[in-house]
Structures are given as C-alpha cells and as structure tokens.
C-alpha cells in the first residue's frame, strides 16, 4: 500500500521504517526539516535499537522517503497514519494542538483533491482520550474536506504498543493489534497494513480503541507502583521482597491472570479488607509511605457509593436488592459490599427488600451472625422469601447476583428500574432500555 506517516518522532519514525520494510511505499511527513533531511539521508532522527540500519535499508531501496509537504504526501498515499505528539498541558489535561493542526492540514489537502483516486483513510495512531476522534477530529476533517467520514473518506484509530528501546521488535511482534474502525472499510485498510504481523487483532469501536491504550499504561504504572510499595514494606519488615514477588508471580490462576480484572461491584469478604488494613498499618508503623495501597479501600468505598448515587438519581423510594453475601455460592456476610450498600440505603430511609437464596438468618452462626447483627440488625424484616416478592415491592432493583432464578425473572422493558452491579449477561441489549442503569458498563 501507499502510506503517509505524519510525525517522525519515535512512534512515527518506527512505524514508517517498519511498514516500508514490509513492502509498503511510505512517505514520512514532519514540520521539522532536520528530521526530514535525516530520513532522506538514510539516517534515523531518533535513537532506538535497530532503527538506524532499518531506515538506511528502506531509504536505499526507495521504500521510504520524507517530506514537509502535506499535499505531496496525501497525493501519493491511500492511508495516512497520524503519529504526532499529545503531551500534557500544565494542568494535566491532554494537549491536542498538534493533532488538530495536522488533521486540518490533511482535510485541506483532501478538499483540494490532493488524494489519489479512491477513498483516503486517515488513521490516528497518537494516544488520545476516548471521544477525541469522534467529537474533535472527525468534525475537523468533515469541515475541511466538505464530506462525511465513513463515506467520502475513512477514519480509524490504531494505538501503538511500542516500548522505547525495543520498539522495532515490538512492531514486528506486538502483544496485540487494535483497530478502532468508524466503518468496516476503514478497518479493512488498517488490516491490510499489518498483513503478516503475528498476534491477535481486535476490531472495536473507535472510543474503545482510544481507551485501551490508557488501560494498558495505567495498569503498567499501577503494577510498578504496587511492586515498589510492597518492596519497601518488605524491606522495612526484614523480608526479601524479590523472593516474595517470585512466589507471587508464579501464581497464574489468580495473580498474573484475568482474575479480578472485570469491572463490577466493590470487593469485600473476610480477607481482602482486613489484610489491606493490616498491611497499610504495618507500613505506617514502619514509617513507609504506601499511597497506592493506602487508597485501595477508600477507592473501593467510593465505588460502592456510586451505586447509592444511582439509586438516589432515580428519585424512587421502594428498593429491591438481589444478593447479600460477599460473593456467589456462600452465605458469608462479613464485610460484604452488598451488606454495606443495604446499610447505607436503609440508613437513608429507603423502603428495602432483599433476596439472597444463600442467606437464611436461622442458619447464621458465630462471627457471621454477630457481624450482621451489628451492621444490619433489621435484616429479618428486610429479607424476602422469593424473587417475585422483591419484584412486586420494588420501583428500583439492584442486581448483585448471577443466581439463575433471579436473572430469568428480571423483566424486560417496562418494570422497575434495574441498577446492574455485575454486568448482566444481556447488558448490551438492556442498555437501550430507559429503565436500565449499569455500574460496570
């Protein structure tokens, strides 16, 4: 394919050189003439493993050249990759100045007929927040082109997952390829660029592609921060942190796995809250600052409050709850987030009915019974005998269980407002219903 790459920094330079080495005809574009001249001389404008030899080779064969002329680049390409920087503003917000400028230039070039015969596809590879492409960049393109995105020209978002220092290697062996497509033809154009590149390909809506990059980077930062905080606590307690993490990393069932990484309701139970408190207290006694660990429980509490806020937003008073124990298949109520939610709603004067097939007050004994008597002493009058009893009572239903008897009884369309705490199996279909509110969309 004939490809133009806008921005010859790390991402653009590596993308241009690697695509050229795959047989595409590539034109790099940059406002910095020094970068343009370096590329045309077969030299890399960035320091990166293997990039120097790669650029020298693809420039020598004629597969890659560079220019400062946007119109020339558009005229000689069918796909345009936008790889300009999106730095932080002083207040932490995303700077989209460079994105907007190059989008205007591409749109103006297309409006003047610079594009070849056939439809040009503009592919944004720069990191940008969800909504940036559809709400900011697409309108700029449509205004300048005088046409409609997805009809007169293609638009896609194709985030990169290149680590500086190993970016060439990562390009040819990526962890995944993500294509946020405005329409199938736009996605097909991006697919063609990476023909032969290994790894799983995800074709998703544009905002999803924008968000994935942030999910990755936020989690990477969180992992590093977690490891460093835990290492500092271990050191203060005289424990070999690397030995601890070697065992931690060996657990591929719960630790290094998809476990616990699905958005849903708050966590609880007899272990997680207690052990987090103990660990943070031990760190404080040892004068070790652990801001990540110290804010896990407050974050969990804030997430629980979001469910209360959703109920308050309905303006209704008769509330039904499905689920009470801290997780399915148990009657353990200790530090259950659903008990906490019921307590907050009851304390605010809501008329509450609760159904949980696993919870029977007459069977509760020991610490479990003591906990519920202290936290929700009125539970006996709140518990319902059946799903139907709750549905009959409720104007708003909070669904915190995947009990098949509950799921099969939930009404479609008309009925009580459903506040989904777990992402119901049919959540996608229910999102169109006016009475559906999801906590874990």
TrEMBL record:
SMART domains: UDPG_MGDP_dh_C
Listed Pfam families: UDPG_MGDP_dh, UDPG_MGDP_dh_C, UDPG_MGDP_dh_N
Keywords: NAD, Oxidoreductase
InterPro entries recorded: GDPman_DH, UDP-Glc/GDP-Man, UDP-Glc/GDP-Man_DH_C, UDP-Glc/GDP-Man_DH_dimer, UDP-Glc/GDP-Man_DH_N
Ranges of residues in domain UDP-glucose/GDP-mannose dehydrogenase C-terminal: 320-427
Family: Belongs to the UDP-glucose/GDP-mannose dehydrogenase family.
UniProt-recorded name of the protein: Nucleotide sugar dehydrogenase
Organism annotation: Streptomyces niphimycinicus
